[in-house]
Amino acid sequence: MMDLREELKAKIIEVLNLEDVSAEEIANDAPLFGGGMGLDSIDALELIVLLDKQYGIKLADPKKGKEIFESIDTMASYIEQHRTK
Description:
Elements: H1 4-15, H2 41-55, H3 62-68, H4 72-82
Helix pairs in contact: 1-4
Keywords: Phosphopantetheine, Phosphoprotein
Protein name: Acyl carrier protein
Organism: Marnyiella aurantia
């Protein structure tokens, strides 16, 4: 079974159409927004949809998303604790 962090990297690349990025290039602790991968608010919305569809996690508070989407590690940790799928 694929590690959750590797699975997340693959899904993020697919959902956000990051054709020039490979999973190996994404560090688990690198920031996803700002200076890291440089994702933006539209990408954040896509990640919220991804959490809902793939893991059954609904984010009611957008401010919580900022904490969750800090890095692959923080996303994986949150998913492991809150997933319903």
